[in-house]
Design goal:
Strand order of the largest sheet of chain A: 1-3-4-5-6
Largest sheet of chain A: 5 strands, antiparallel
Shape of chain A: elongated
Helix content of chain A: 25-40%
Strand content of chain A: 25-35%
CATH class of the largest domain in chain A: Mainly Beta
Number of helices of chain A: 4
Structural class of chain A: alpha+beta
Shape of chain B: elongated
Largest sheet of chain B: none
CATH architecture of the largest domain in chain A: Roll
CATH topology of the largest domain in chain A: PH-domain like
Strand content of chain B: under 5%
Distance between the termini of chain A: 30 Å
Radius of gyration of chain B: 18 Å
Oligomer: heterodimer
Distance between the termini of chain B: 26 Å
């Protein structure tokens, strides 16, 4: 499994929190890689800014002040360090937001702004209904969408947002529930 | 046209703001390391060591830059 994997069937060398010894991961999902395009473009812009944009900006503003060279050195280093930090935090935010389908349950692990974690799960026997939506030009071209799993009782619904191959995810979960491992889907 | 000379109190103010800003950024870098540890506990995956190395390298680079700012500015 590569670090950019967003859809994996029966993945190996993977383990998640609270996974039981007899529990097997059937599907491993992340949001489609296309959701990373905005921050990637932003990072590219930030990288080229000091060499392309700033000289033109300073010339246009007619700034005629000579700071000591050390300020330019530290300033430029901080700029690139902050750009790297932005890219790293954005990548980590995508990397660790995962959706898992096992032979016993479905799991949704979300991290918000790096600091807040939300762990949701629903046993296959509790699944009442499952459907998916996919709309828009990008979703049609790159085949990604949202899967909503409705559960019985007070358990909250589980939303798989912007995942690749939503129809395969629905089919897989439906097969798991119909195989007699539970559910009324 | 000769460039304007910047007064020393302006440079001192700029230095203080730069160091405070870098300190705040160092806190962010430290939080990133801690959060990666927590996230790695949730999901164990083979790419983990590389992400850990990247966040730690980021923190070290931040500390080095902070020291550079204190010394050079």
């Amino acid at each position: 499994m590569s670090p950019l994997t967003a859809f994996a069937v029966n993945p190996t060398s993977l383990r998640f929190e609270t996974q039981e010894d007899t529990e097997k991961v059937i599907l491993f999902l992340r949001q489609h890689f296309i959701v990373n395009v905005p921050w990637i473009l932003g990072t590219i812009l930030l990288v080229i800014a000091p060499t392309v944009i700033f000289p033109r900006l300073f010339h246009a503003l007619s700034l005629n002040m000579a700071f000591p060279t050390s300020y330019y050195v530290v300033g430029t280093m901080f700029w690139y360090l902050a750009t790297f930090g932005f890219a790293l935090a954005s990548f980590i935010g995508w990397f660790f937001n995962i959706y898992i389908v096992t032979n016993e349950r479905i799991v949704d692990i979300d991290f918000f702004y790096l600091l807040y974690k939300k762990f949701s799960e629903a046993e296959l026997t509790k699944i009442q209904d499952i459907n998916y939506t996919s709309g828009g030009l990008l979703a049609a071209v790159f085949n990604f969408g949202n899967v909503v799993v409705e559960t019985a009782g007070e358990a909250p619904n589980i939303d798989f947002e912007l995942i690749p191959f939503p129809e395969k995810v629905v089919e897989t979960i439906r097969e798991l529930t119909e195989r007699g491992e539970g559910g009324s889907v | 046209m000769t460039p304007a000379v910047i007064p020393s109190y302006v440079l001192l103010t700029l230095k203080i703001f730069s160091i405070v800003g870098l300190l705040i950024y160092a806190v962010f870098a430290g939080v990133l390391v801690r959060q990666e540890q927590l996230m790695a506990h949730v999901l164990e995956e083979q790419f983990q060591p590389i992400i850990r190395a990247l966040v730690i390298a980021h923190l070290i680079a931040t500390v080095v830059l902070l020291l550079l700012a204190i010394i050079l500015l």
